[in-house]
Predict the 3D structure of the following.
Amino acid sequence: MTRDGRSGHSTAEPSGEDRVAAGEEDQWLVAFCGLPGVGKSTVAGYVTEQLDAVRLRTDVVRKELFDEPQYTAEETESVYRELSRRAGDALAAGKSVVLDATFTNAAHREDARELAARHGVGFRLIEVVCDQAIAEQRIAARDDVSDADVDVYRRFQDEFDPVEGDHTVVDNSGSKVETYRQLDTLF
């Protein structure tokens, strides 16, 4: 059957979704979402290596755009627009892309899904979760580009739009090996 329901062979190029369903996808846009401190950057780094992808972090983009980030709504919109622009450039160049961001707003997640569709590449939305006590311990101990502290983590719990639709949940409460095992089945 062709896409319009008629019998026969389709000459149309398969969509990204069709290639993913057939296990043929070789270019991806992977968006990691979740609260600060749950380990998004750890798992995003792992997937970046597995896919030989370009990794884009909102923490880095924000600091490139703003000398003294204020984390306002307008600033956040600018960061996600730039993230999307950079991802689109990398996808157009034939690269897979890993987006490392909280994606607190469901609309930003949908924008990522639409970007993948426009470029005809496979898309995965991966929600990283972690036991709250472990996340808070990790936040207190980390020394990286992120400005998020425990207060930010708790605020984001209230602001985070529920993740709905097609996505994968990865629990990063255990060891890296346990987390990576969950990711290995996805690509």
Q: What stands out?
A: The beta strands are 28-33, 54-57, 97-100, 122-129, 168-171. The chain has eight helices and five strands. Residues 48 and 98 are 6 Å apart (CA to CA). The chain has one domain: 25-184.
